[in-house]
Design goal:
This protein is α+β, with helices and mostly antiparallel strands and about 210 residues long. The protein is built from nine helices and four strands; from the N terminus they run αααααβαααβαββ. The protein has a four-stranded mixed beta sheet, sandwiched between helices. It is elongated.
Length: about 210
C-alpha cells in the first residue's frame, strides 16, 4: 500500500518540493499494519473525549494508556521509517566518515547530525591554517552583524572549500544545490542518494 501511495504521489506530480520527491526514492520496508498505530490514537482520543463529556474517570485512564501505547509504537516503528526517508542517506555517509581521518561539513543547510554521527572531536579543529582562516572569517562576519558563535560552522565550511586542508574534506549538500560545489575547483562528486549529493576535496600533494 505504501509503495502504491508513494508511486501515485510521485508519478502524478502531486509533490512540488524536489527534495521531498528525491527523499521518497528511499527504499523503506512497510509491513502494511502500521495503520493500527493510527487506529490506536483515534480510539484513545475518542475514549478521552467521551470520558470528559460523561465525567467517566475510568475511561480517561483507558484513553491515556492507549495514548502512551500510541506514542511508544510511533517512536519504535514510525520514527525510524520516517528517518529513512528524511536523512538516512546523509547519516549513513556521516557514519562512514567516522571511520576516516577527514573533515566533514554541510553546505547550504544546517544540521547537527554530522557532528554526532561522524564522531567529530576537538582535534578536528586544530589545523593552524584552519584556526587563522576561521578567526579572520568570523571577524568579517561579525562586522556584517552576524553572531560569532552561530557563524563558526559557516566559517569552517569556507575554510574546507577554499583553505589549505591537510586531509580529505567531505561536504554534504542537497542535490538541488550541488551546482554550487560543481562550479568550485578541486571538488569531486562521489555520489548522490535520496536528495543528497556527496563531495570530497582532497589536500594538495606537497611539491617534490
Amino acid at each position: 500500500m505504501m509503495l502504491f501511495l508513494k508511486n501515485f504521489l510521485i508519478q502524478n506530480n502531486l509533490i512540488k518540493d524536489e527534495l521531498a520527491v528525491q527523499n521518497l526514492q528511499a527504499e523503506v520496508h512497510w509491513t502494511g499494519f502500521e495503520f493500527i498505530i493510527g487506529f490506536i490514537f483515534f480510539t484513545s482520543s475518542l475514549l478521552i473525549f467521551i470520558a470528559l463529556n460523561r465525567k467517566h474517570l475510568k475511561l480517561v485512564l483507558y484513553g491515556l494508556i492507549l495514548n502512551i501505547v500510541f506514542i511508544w509504537l510511533s517512536i519504535v516503528i514510525l520514527v525510524p521509517k520516517i528517518e529513512m526517508y528524511s536523512q538516512h542517506a546523509a547519516i549513513e555517509f556521516y557514519k562512514w566518515c567516522a571511520t576516516k581521518n577527514c573533515y566533514v561539513e554541510t553546505h547550504h543547510f544546517k544540521s547537527y547530525a554530522y557532528l554526532f554521527y561522524s564522531n567529530r572531536k576537538p582535534e578536528d579543529y586544530t589545523n593552524p591554517d584552519q584556526i587563522a582562516y576561521i578567526e579572520n572569517q568570523l571577524n568579517i562576519m561579525e562586522k556584517e552583524g552576524h553572531s560569532r558563535l552561530s557563524s563558526y560552522p559557516t566559517s569552517n565550511l569556507f575554510w574546507m572549500e577554499n583553505g589549505k586542508i591537510d586531509r580529505p574534506a567531505y561536504i554534504v549538500v542537497y542535490k538541488k544545490n550541488e551546482d554550487e560545489l560543481i562550479r568550485k575547483t578541486g571538488f569531486i562528486k562521489m555520489y548522490e542518494k535520496n536528495g543528497f549529493s556527496f563531495f570530497v576535496r582532497m589536500p594538495e600533494k606537497p611539491a617534490k
